[in-house]
């Protein structure tokens, strides 16, 4: 699917669909945009100009790990924000994707 909307803007639009209390993965976002470049999704989120509008803290690795380079305060801040939204975590510190993964993108 070709679009004139820049890739980073497409990423932000997808992330805005993830509701509070849920997470998605870099790979799921890439797949929803017909891309295999999850790393580029991470680059887009790291460059996010407005964290209040685009909740990039809701994006994690495919195994539920938090982003070590979370741009808005590191993994501790990402976890804090997710905990405020009552996202469940496993004993190993990863997000419980079985309970929190958001799968449906428009």
SSE map:
Blueprint (H helix, E strand, L loop, with lengths): L6 H9 L8 E2 H7 L5 H9 L12 E2 L13 H11 L12 H4 L6
Parallel strand pairs: 1-2
Helix pairs in contact: 1-3, 2-3
Structure description:
By secondary structure, the protein is mainly α. The chain has one domain (7-100): Arc Repressor Mutant, subunit A, CATH 1.10.10. Helix content is 38%, strand content 4%. The protein is built from 5 helices and 2 strands. It has helices at residues 7-15, 26-32, 38-46, 74-84, 97-100, and strands at 24-25, 59-60. Strands 1-2 form a two-stranded parallel sheet. The protein is globular and about 40 Å long. The mean pLDDT is 91.
Task: Jot down its keywords.
mainly alpha; two-stranded parallel ribbon; Arc Repressor Mutant, subunit A; 5 helices; 4% strand
In short:
With 106 residues, the chain is mainly α.
- SSE pattern, N- to C-terminal: HEHHEHH
CATH fold title:
Arc Repressor Mutant, subunit A
The helix content is: 25-40%
Number of strands: 2
CATH structural class: Mainly Alpha
Largest sheet features: 2 strands, parallel
For the biggest β-sheet, the strand order reads: 1-2
Q: Averaging pLDDT over every residue, what do you get?
A: 91
What Rg, in angstroms, do the CA atoms define?
13 Å
pLDDT < 50 runs, ≥5 residues: none
Calculate the terminal CA-CA distance, rounded to whole Å.
Answer: 14 Å
What structural class should be given to the helix and strand makeup? mainly alpha
């Amino acid at each position: 699917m070709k679009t004139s909307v820049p890739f980073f803007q497409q990423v932000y639009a997808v992330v805005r669909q993830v509701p509070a209390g849920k997470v998605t993965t870099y790979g799921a976002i890439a797949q929803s945009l017909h891309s295999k470049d999850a790393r580029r999704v991470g680059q887009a989120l790291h460059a996010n100009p407005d964290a209040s509008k685009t909740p990039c803290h809701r994006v994690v690795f495919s195994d539920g790990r938090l982003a070590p380079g979370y741009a808005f305060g590191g993994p501790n801040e990402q976890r804090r924000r997710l905990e405020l939204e009552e996202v469940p975590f496993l004993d190993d510190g990863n997000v419980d994707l079985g309970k929190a993964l958001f799968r449906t993108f428009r």
